[in-house]
Amino acid sequence: MDQVNLSEANLSNAEMENVSCLETTATNANFTLANLQGAKFLGSNLSGSNLDSANLRKSIFLEANLSKCNLNEADLSNSDFSRADMSHSTIVESNLSRGRFNGANFESVDFTDSRLSMAVFFEANFKNANLNRAQVKGAKLAGGTFENTSLPRADITGADLTDAKFLNSNLSRAKLNGAILRRTDLKGSDLSEADLSIADLTGASLTDVKLIGANMERIKLNQAKLPGAKLCGAKMNKAKLAQVDLSKADLSGANLTGADLTESNLQDCDLSRANLTEAILQKANLKSAFLIGANLQKTDLTEVNLEGANIAGVKLCKANCQKANMKNVDLQRSDLEHADFTQADLTGSNLTGTKLGDAHFKNANLTGADLSLADTTDTDFSDAKGYNS
Predict the structure, then answer these.
(1) CB of 49 closer than 8 Å to CB of 30
(2) What single string gives the DSSP state of each residue in 127-167?
(3) What stretch of H or E contains 246?
(4) 184 vs 157: CA distance, rounded Å
(5) Beta bridge partners of 225
(6) The Cα angle at residue 298 between residues 296 and 300, in degrees rounded to 5
(7) Is the pLDDT of residue 196 over 90?
(8) Which of 11, 55, 279, 359 has its CA 20 to 30 A from that of 261?
(9) For residues 78 and 299, what is the distance between their CA atoms, to the nearest angstrom?
(10) What is the mean pLDDT of residues 332-355?
């Protein structure tokens, strides 16, 4: 049946198992409920056809044209549609699991409630596609394009999205736990309340991304870029955030307990009411950051840059602030008991009304610092510069 013309043919309920239709024209044909299992339509044109509820298991549609087709409730499992054009089609409640769709064009396709689990979509185009509530568990989507794509509540657990582009996409409440998003571009996307626990976003770009209320426990974000990101209320305990750019990000109320932020850039970041208990911020840049009401108990702030930061009312009990740059920092009414400020620079800082019981300021620079009304019970100021008892 190679190179035959089946345009507008009525093949509803047809038995076409293992049929070969190479370079066939079947535009606007009716294949509803047809059995096309194992069929070969390589390089064929089926644009505008109706394949609703068709059996396409193990079929091969390499480089075929299926644009503007209906494939609702169809079974495409274990099939091969690599480099096929399926743009502007509807594939609602269909089964694409374990299929191969490398380089396929899914622009503006509706995948609502479809199953794409364990399928392969290397460098596929999902621009403007709708994957609302789609099951994409364990799928391989590396290098894919998802510009303006809708994926709310999609299950993308454990999927491989390395080097994918999700520009301005909607991933709110999506399940991405354990997913691989290395070097993925998520600029301007919405991941509010998404589950990104244990996901790997090493080197990813998340500029101006919304992650409000997202679950990011134990996430890997090393060397990622998140300037201007909205992370208020995000759960990021024990997250790996070393050398991450979080400048001007909103982390108010975020849970960063035990997170590793070594050498990260948090300049002008909003960390008000954030929980940073036992977090690691060695050599991090928090210049002009806003930390009012934050919890920094037992936090490692060794050699951190907090110059000009507002951390009034914070809890710094038992924090390690050795060699920290805290010039002109507002620490008034803060709890600094048992904290270590050895060799720290607190020039011009406001320490009025602070609790300094058993804190250590050995060899610290307190020139111009205001310690009025501070509780200095058992405080160690030995060899501190600018301190007048």
Answers:
(1) yes
(2) TT-B-TT-B-TT-B-TT-B-TT-B-TT-B-TT-B-TT-B-T
(3) none
(4) 16
(5) 205, 245
(6) 85
(7) yes
(8) 359
(9) 51
(10) 95
| Residue the block writes with tokens 């996307």 | 189
Q: Is 105 exposed, middle or buried (0-12, 13-18, 19+ CB in 10 A)?
A: buried
Tokens of 308: 């000009």
If 0-12 CB within 10 Å is exposed, 13-18 middle and 19+ buried, where does residue 389 land? exposed
pTM of the model: 0.87
68: CB partners within 8 A, 6+ apart: 47, 48, 87, 88, 89
Task: State both tokens at 195.
Answer: 């589950």
Contacts of 10 (CB under 8 A, 6+ apart): 29, 30
Which residue carries 């501070």 as its tokens? 374
Token pair of 257 as six digits: 């307990």
For the chain, the average pLDDT equals: 95
Helices (H) and strands (E) in the chain, counts: 0, 0
> How long a stretch of residues is the chain?
389
Beta strands in 52-150 (DSSP E): none
The CA distance from 46 to 69, in Å, is 8
Nearest alpha carbon to residue 156 among 106, 199, 110: 199
Q: Which residue has the tokens 């909205």?
A: 230
Q: Is the domain defined by 1-152 classed in CATH 2.160.20.80?
A: yes
- For the chain, the domains span 1-152
Count the helix, strand and coil residues of the chain and give each as a percent rounded to the nearest 5.
0, 20, 80
Q: What is the pLDDT, as a whole number, of residue 86?
A: 98
CA distances from 230 to 160, 286, 287 (A): 24, 17, 19
Q: Which two tokens stand for residue 238?
A: 């024990």
Q: Which of 330, 337, 300 is nearest to 315 (CA)?
A: 337
- β-bridge mates for residue 260, sequence order: 240, 280
Tell me the two tokens of residue 203. 């080197």
